Every structure is written in C-alpha cells, then in structure tokens.
Amino acid sequence: MKITLQCKVLVVNRHAILFFVRISLLPLRVTIFQCITPVPHAGSFFSVTRTPTECSYITEDYLVPPEATAVNAGWRALMVHGPLDFSLTGVLASIANPLAAARVSIFAVSTFDTDYVLIQESHLAAAMDALRAAGHEVIES
C-alpha cells in the first residue's frame, strides 16, 4: 500500500523513526462535552465517541446544545495532513512528545484519514512554538 503522508522521515536507528509532519491550525474553536440526549451532527468539525460508560462529543463552540453537561470549551484544532496509512507508528507521538515537554496538554482525535490534536487556546502559542522547534511545519490558516 502506498503511504501518502506529507512529512519528512528521519530514521535514527532500526528502533527509532522520527516524523516531521505538516500540521494546519484550523480556523475554528471547539468544545468537548457530554450530553444525555442525542446531539445532531452539524458544523465543519463534529466527533462523537460512545463507550459502555459515556458518550463524548466535540463540536464547534457555537453548536454546543444548552442541555450539554461536563462542558470543556476553548479548544483549537490542529490537523495533521494526511491521509495516514494505518501501518504508520509514531506519528501522533512525534506531536505529543514535544507538547508534553512544553507542558501543553492535548486531546487527540483520530479519523480514518488523519489525526487531529486539540489544544487549549491559552496554550496555543506555546504549542505552535514547541511543534516548530521539533521540526514540524505548522501552517496557520
């Protein structure tokens, strides 16, 4: 299968591969929340994860329903340019590790094609600096 990831790959040794990916800051603000009633799919960014114990949603701030509970607002979305092949390992770690070193918390969301990393807006500048210092190309749209 052809891997179409837009990145630079550095093989350090047979055990370590470093990815330097292209990441775009999306021009939207999102909220992570829970809701007892079903939430209609709307907007340009919507994710739902259901487990046996909870149902979590992510959507644009202005689309959060009034009956939402456990609301955590103020997130910005970074999109890894893809698509990413399922056989790739370490792509998300190449983003999460420099952010952890910079003490920036993340909320990761994966789709069939790519990964999204949500960053609290108050930590966005530090996150962008850390990702660029780690060798990633960060595009602000």
Topology record:
Elements: E1 7-13, E2 16-34, E3 46-50, E4 55-60, E5 69-80, H1 91-101, E6 106-110, E7 115-120, H2 124-133, E8 137-140
Parallel strand pairs: 2-8
Antiparallel strand pairs: 1-2, 2-4, 2-5, 3-4, 5-7, 6-7
Strand content: over 45%
**CATH fold group:** VC0802-like
Largest sheet properties: 8 strands, mixed
The quaternary state of the protein chains shown equals: single chain
- What sequence of helices (H) and strands (E) makes up the elements? EEEEEHEEHE
- Arithmetic mean of pLDDT: 85
Rg from Cα: 16 Å
* Annotated CATH homologous superfamily: VC0802-like
CATH architectural name? 2-Layer Sandwich
Secondary structure: number of strands: 8
Secondary structure class reads mainly beta
Gap from first CA to last CA: 31 Å
Low-confidence stretches: 1-5, 9-17
| Fraction of helical residues | 10-25%
Number of self-contained structural domains: 1
Total count of helical runs of at least 4 residues: 2
From the structure above, extract its key features.
141 residues; mainly beta
What report would you give on this structure?
The chain has 141 residues and is mainly β. The protein has one domain (1-141): VC0802-like, CATH 3.30.2130.10. The chain is built from 2 helices and 8 strands.
Concise synopsis of the structure shown:
This protein has two helices and eight strands. It has 141 residues and is mostly beta strands. The protein has a single domain, classed as 2-Layer Sandwich (VC0802-like).
